[in-house]
Design goal:
There is one protein chain. The protein has about 500 residues and is α/β, with parallel strands linked by helices. Helix content is about 40%, strand content about 10%. The strands form four sheets. Strands 2-3-4-5-7-9 form a six-stranded parallel sheet. α5 runs parallel beside α6. The protein is globular and about 75 Å long. The termini are far apart.
Length: about 500
């Protein structure tokens, strides 16, 4: 039974409790510590907040010195989307690689080791895994973040990932409900619309979420997408029909409902972050994620005050805000209990440079995820330092452009003297050939099927140099071509390492 707030202090604390804000810097600013003391119950971490595991552990310890039950969240999917290793590339392949291998025990082991790293750094809520069924190969924002296009495959690996994280005390946040896979618009930029009937939605998008709920996922993240069959007017994050009617009542989810970033244009451009946050809580969300773009005290105060005002004017029922705050506190209590029992610590939990704690499970998984297709002639390993031509598309916001990707650095370790160049939409085969000279060319692409400039340049390059090796580090939708074609199923650092080993015959 929800107890109604009877004082301004209680109302203000509840409004702060439902916020999950970010901040700038690698140490906790004074304003953040002050607001934690006033009731802020969650903090979101991004790549800008992380330098080393030791620095991150000190940061989270400082937050908990202010309040020992504060939830510390991060967007650590592994693979292309990494915050723990934002400057190096991930030690773990992402979902698409794991789905390609299709070994649920491997997926569970990867998630468990990733969870151990999070625990060692003091993080206890992970905005992962992505349970989106990537049914649209033109999807610009999900792609390799999904386990694949088959609902049942996505469901079983989502369950394994949730199990692996939560076994070591990290709450999983399964996303992006009710499914962001059938979109051709990035919700960071605009509002995607999915016009499928309810039968399709239940047979495809909702299958992994049903499985995650049955597996006990502690949190679910909503998507800023319009599903006309469920709500023709409001995106899922702001829709009572979707969050309360579908997720709570029909699917029976009792955990924490977290919004995707409220400053994303799919919501902010139409509603603004203040009204969007009020509508989200009213619709059934329990926690407001903000901070990927807006990461200052003013944002926290604006959202706090908007929620308080909405309660006072009757727009937001007081009991709904109180219920949301209580769900946040319940999850914080679960994670705190795991920390008290020492989950995820002890032998084997210390972070090792470039690997998962005490294991090379990430590299093992990346090697298993490779698909290697020889060309018409027998392939001989590259033994002399090659020229790596990386065809680089614009990064989406979720992945970011600060995380390195590719295979050049990994080939340089195996074949000293390797040279590289990066090419964009104005690339030409002649430019690549001029830079390569007599060196063997290794062409690295990412979602070549979505970028005509990339595919066209690659075809011209292969016509001139048939001995070119091709490495696809995105969705492997294009036909294999080249003297050797390697599909890594993701662009994590370990995927590049596995590909480099194959090229060099190691």
């Amino acid at each position: 039974m929800t107890t109604l707030a009877t004082s301004t202090d209680t109302l203000t604390r509840d409004a702060l409790t439902v916020l999950q804000p970010g901040f700038v810097g690698t140490t906790a600013p004074d304003w953040l510590l002050r607001r934690i003391g006033e009731g802020l119950s969650s903090v979101g971490l991004f790549g800008r907040n992380v330098v080393t595991p030791e620095q991150l552990a000190a940061l989270t310890a400082r937050l908990r010195a202010e309040r020992d039950d504060v939830l510390v969240a991060i967007d650590e999917e592994g693979g292309d989307v990494t915050r723990l290793e934002v400057n190096e590339g991930s030690s773990f392949p992402g979902n698409y690689a794991l789905g390609h291998v299709d070994d649920v025990e491997l997926t569970r082991a990867v998630a468990r080791e990733l969870g151990r790293r999070l625990v060692a750094c003091g993080v206890d809520l992970n905005w992962a895994p992505s349970a989106d069924v990537n049914s649209n190969a033109e999807n610009p924002v999900i792609g390799v973040r999904s386990f694949g296009a088959d609902p049942d495959l996505v469901a079983r690996h989502t369950v394994a990932y949730v199990d692996g994280l939560q076994a070591v005390g990290v709450a999983a946040c399964t996303k992006h409900f009710p499914g962001h896979g059938d979109t051709n618009v990035d919700s960071h930029d605009a509002l995607p619309r999915i016009d499928v009937d309810l039968a399709t939605l239940h047979a495809r998008e909702l299958v992994p979420f049903r499985a995650a709920i049955a597996a006990g996922s502690k949190a679910v993240m909503s998507a800023h997408i319009l599903l006309s069959a469920l709500d023709p007017d409001r995106p899922a994050t702001l829709s009572p029909q979707i969050l309360t009617g579908l997720l709570r009542q029909e699917l029976g989810f009792e955990g924490l409902i977290v919004t995707d970033g409220m400053e994303m244009q799919a919501v902010a451009a139409t509603y603004g972050i203040e009204r969007g946050s009020v509508l989200a809580i009213a619709a059934g969300a329990d926690a407001i994620c903000v901070g990927g773009g807006l990461a200052d005290e003013e944002t926290v105060l604006r959202l706090r005050d908007a929620l308080v005002t909405a309660v006072r004017t009757g727009e937001l029922p007081e009991e709904r805000l109180a219920d949301a705050a209580e769900r946040v506190r319940a999850l914080a209590a679960w994670t705190q209990a795991h920390r008290a029992r020492g989950a995820g610590t002890g032998p084997g939990a210390a972070t090792q440079e470039g690997t998962a704690p005490g294991t090379d499970v990430g590299l093992v998984a990346a090697r298993r995820a490779l698909t290697i297709t020889p060309g018409e002639r027998p392939f001989t390993p590259v033994t002399d330092a090659p020229y790596v031509a990386s065809f680089t598309p614009a990064a989406n916001f979720a992945v970011g452009d600060e995380t390195p990707w590719g295979i050049a650095a990994e080939l340089e370790r195996l074949l000293p003297g390797t040279r590289t160049g990066s090419y964009g939409a104005d690339a030409s085969a002649d430019a690549v050939l001029a830079a390569a000279g007599e060196r063997r060319v290794v062409a690295v692409v990412r979602d070549a099927h979505r970028h005509p400039w990339m595919s066209g340049t690659l075809d011209a390059l292969l016509a001139a140099r048939p001995d070119t090796v091709v490495v696809e580090m995105g969705l492997d939708e294009s036909e294999p071509r080249g003297a050797l074609h390697i599909a890594t199923h993701g662009a994590a650092r370990v995927c590049g390492q596995a590909a480099a080993e194959a090229i060099a015959g190691r």
